C-alpha cells in the first residue's frame, strides 16, 4: 500500500546526563505524504538544576557544555519551536517512552504545567512485527540495527537530527510492512507510552521477566562499576555492545565476554525498562551463571536501566 497519505513528525532527544530533564539536543523530521520534507535540529541548554554533563553521555553523542553554552537554546524556546513544527501532526520516536519522558521532565523543571503530546513508538512496532513474523531475522531492534536492516545509510548515530531522520524512515518502512495508510492505522491509535494497542496485532503479550523470581539466589546489585567484572547477554537499546564495554572500562570495570569464574555481574538485556530481571536460564550464559552460583560463586544480575544508572554515577 502507498505511503502517500502518511504524515507525522519524528522526534529525537539527547540528554546531558541520567536525568530525563537534561535535554541537550533535539531533532525533528517532518514527513508529509510519505515523503521527508524537512529535518531540523538544535542544541538545548539544560535547566541549571540538571546541567552537569556526564562523561558517558558525552562519549555517546559528543555534545559538550561549551557547545550548548555557545549555541544552545533554552527549553522555553525549544518547546515553542517543537510545537510550531509539529502542529497537529502525529508524533513518533524510537523508544518513545524515553523521548516523551524527556519532554515531560524538561517541562517540569522549567515550570511548564503541560504534558508532551502522545507518541507512536517505532521500537514497539518493530518488536511486535518480529513476534508476528512480519519481520524476520532481527534479534535486536535498536535504531541503528533497524536502519541497517532496511538498507538505510546512517552517518552519525546519536546525532539528534539524523536519529530523527532514521526514525522517520524506519517508521515509513514499518507502516508499509503493515499495509497501513496512516500512522494511526499502523499503530491503532496513540498512547502516552507509545505502545501498540493490544487489539492491533493478535499476539499474546510476553510475560515480563521480572514477574517471576530467579531460579537461584543472586548477589545484591553492585554499588558501582569499578572493580566489577561484567558479562552481557542480550542486546541493549541505549548503546551497542562495543559502546557498553568501552563505558564500563572507562568507569574502572572489567569485561568478560563469556560467563567465567571472574564474572561478578551479569547484565541481561531484556529491554530498556526491564530493571533487575530474574535469572531464568534462558540461554547459555544464564545457564553458566546458574551453574557457577550453585557452586558458590557470587554473581549479581542487573538489567539495562540498572547498568545505565551505575554508569551515570561514575
From TrEMBL:
Superkingdom field: Bacteria
Signal sequence coordinates: none
Record-level Gene Ontology MF annotations: 3'-5' exonuclease activity; nucleic acid binding
Residue span, BRCT domain: 220-314
One GO CC annotation: cytosol
PROSITE patterns hit by this protein: BRCT (PS50172)
Family annotation (InterPro entries): BRCT_dom (IPR001357), BRCT_dom_sf (IPR036420), Ribonucl_H (IPR013520), RNaseH-like_sf (IPR012337), RNaseH_sf (IPR036397)
SUPFAM superfamilies registered for this protein in UniProt: BRCT domain (SSF52113), Ribonuclease H-like (SSF53098)
The name this protein goes by in its record: BRCT domain-containing protein
Lineage: Bacteria, Bacillati, Actinomycetota, Actinomycetes, Micrococcales
Amino acid at each position: 500500500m502507498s505511503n502517500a497519505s502518511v504524515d507525522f513528525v519524528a522526534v529525537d532527544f539527547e540528554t546531558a546526563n541520567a536525568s530525563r530533564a537534561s535535554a541537550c539536543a533535539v531533532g525533528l523530521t517532518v514527513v508529509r505524504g510519505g515523503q521527508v520534507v524537512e529535518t531540523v535540529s538544535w542544541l538545548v541548554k539544560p535547566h541549571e538544576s540538571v546541567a552537569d554533563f556526564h562523561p558517558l553521555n558525552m562519549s555517546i553523542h559528543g555534545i559538550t557544555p561549551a557547545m550548548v553554552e555557545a549555541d544552545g537554546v533554552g527549553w522555553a524556546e525549544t518547546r515553542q519551536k517543537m510545537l510550531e513544527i509539529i502542529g497537529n501532526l502525529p508524533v513518533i520516536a524510537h523508544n518513545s517512552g524515553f523521548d516523551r519522558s524527556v519532554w515531560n521532565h524538561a517541562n517540569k523543571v522549567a515550570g511548564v504545567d503541560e504534558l508532551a503530546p502522545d507518541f507512536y513508538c517505532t521500537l514497539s512496532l518493530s518488536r511486535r512485527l518480529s513476534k508476528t513474523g512480519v519481520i524476520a531475522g532481527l534479534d535486536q531492534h535498536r535504531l541503528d540495527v533497524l536502519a541497517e536492516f532496511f538498507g538505510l545509510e546512517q552517518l552519525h548515530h546519536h546525532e539528534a537530527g539524523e536519529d530523527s531522520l532514521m526514525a522517520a524512515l524506519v517508521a515509513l518502512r514499518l507502516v508499509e510492512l503493515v499495509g497501513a495508510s496512516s500512522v494511526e492505522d499502523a499503530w491503532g491509535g496513540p498512547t502516552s507510552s507509545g505502545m501498540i494497542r493490544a487489539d492491533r496485532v493478535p499476539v499474546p503479550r510476553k510475560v515480563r521477566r521480572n514477574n517471576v523470581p530467579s531460579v537461584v539466589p543472586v548477589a545484591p546489585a553492585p554499588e558501582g562499576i569499578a572493580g566489577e567484572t561484567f558479562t552481557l547477554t542480550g542486546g541493549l537499546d541505549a548503546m551497542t555492545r562495543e559502546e557498553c564495554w568501552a563505558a564500563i572500562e572507562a568507569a574502572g570495570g572489567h569485561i568478560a565476554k563469556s560467563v567465567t569464574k571472574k564474572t561478578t555481574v551479569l547484565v541481561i538485556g531484556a529491554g530498556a525498562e526491564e530493571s533487575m530481571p530474574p535469572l531464568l536460564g534462558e540461554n547459555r550464559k544464564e545457564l553458566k551463571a546458574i551453574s557457577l552460583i550453585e557452586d558458590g560463586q557470587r554473581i549479581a544480575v542487573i538489567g539495562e536501566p540498572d547498568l545505565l544508572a551505575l554508569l551515570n554515577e561514575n
